[in-house]
Amino acid sequence: MMNMFKRVEETPSALALTVKNWLAHRGRRFGHLTARANGKGQFVIEALALDRNTGGGLIITAPLTEGELKYPSLTPETPAAHWAERAVGDLFGIQATGHPRWKSLILHSDAWPDDPAPLSSLERLHKEPYPFLEVSGEGVHEIPVGPIHAGIIEPGHFRFSCVGEIISNLDIRLGYQHRGVEKRLAELPWQQMRYLAESAGSDTAAGNALAHATAMETILGIEPPPRAQALRTVALELERLANHVGDLGALSGDIGYSACAALFPPMRGAVLALAQLLTGTRRQRYYIKPGGVARDLDDTRRTALVQGLVDISRRLEELIPLVLENPAVIERMEGTGRLSPTLARDFGIVGPAARASGSHYDAREVFAHGVYPGRAPKVASRTTGDVLARAQIRVDEIHAGLEFLTELLDDLPKGAIFIDCDQEKLPLDAVGVGIVEAWRGELIHWVTTDRTGAISRYSIKDPSFNNWTGLAIAARGNLVADFPLCNKSFNLSYSGNDL
Questions:
Q1: What is the CATH code for 5-131?
Q2: Which end of the chain has fewer CB atoms < 10 Å from its terminal CB, N or C?
Q3: Minimal CA–CA distance to 494: which of 81, 175, 109?
């Protein structure tokens, strides 16, 4: 697979301006930022800048001088970089000077009070108590929620500053799920990395596996067979379909609409059953791998898949109007949790949340993964940016996905499902970037090798890493009682953020 990302070097002092100037051109966006050791006693700050016009972009590297642990922050000019810079501070002990809200993102000082930065041997910079944003004034009060919740969900802390029942600010603190995934990925033999890479987020196993495979195939310079690419795409779209259908039921539950809260989960289960028919497991684990897929699809199972999609489509045609044509549901969702197109763009929001706020960006139209971008479906978009718009985007993508899956299965290419890539060593000083439109949005796996062919940095950017800020913004001005609905309309991953 051809590498569409060019590496350029810049000084740390000029990095922020270089990124800003790059992003000033139409069709470009900020992808991610991380750091790595370069084997010469230095750290390198790296910014990934994406170009939607070419399906590639730039990797801008800025080596720090030996012993230097600071660089000028990108965030004042590129707000979408704000969480990535805080993560670099936690994981490497490197400070982005001038960052407007510099504090820990992933690691908690009370949990790791004396440990060095996880991805270096340096002392971490964030050992002070976590500074929540304070809001003051007459009638202002705080409501702390979590990290342990009443429901069976992942841990995260929400600090609401409220005037009466109105949320004036929401501070979100995560990091409770930090597992050291990225560090361990750089330690494993590359042939075994896929098992951990797809586990970065259990509800996005196909998306993570495909992003990992795409990145590794770029490094290896191989192209999977057409049939493998089509089967990968079927897995990815089944994952999207299952989660979108499940979200409609969850949204119904959060407004007390018990009928649809009960009717949609079985439909999600029906989609997961088709995923098991394709891959052998409902969560589609161990299926997508560098070079292709692990299991072919025979005609009997293909016919059953197509018939299953027909049955699901018919049933959803009955169920979806119960949500989107119900005046009580519309009244509750319309205008709730609004995220403006301007703020969505500035903070780099991705996926259905971005497309509900006026964005037309869908990585399936831009970056090579599966059969994309050659056969990308039409992008769904709304402009109101509220809970209703985010539900409507899901419904649009459900309809498009059902149609697209049927087309893929009716026209599967013949041939092999795997190309051998079992070489012992990876190329030296190589980089691979896998960008996938997962069901939550743009998912990035970014892999770099060193002068010996070993993995020097494996960085993952889950779509939730972008979108938690969007939730915090969307909650402002809403009733506390409406926060569960706002939260579910984004449906973000805690573990995908924490890694």
A1: 3.30.460.80
A2: N
A3: 175
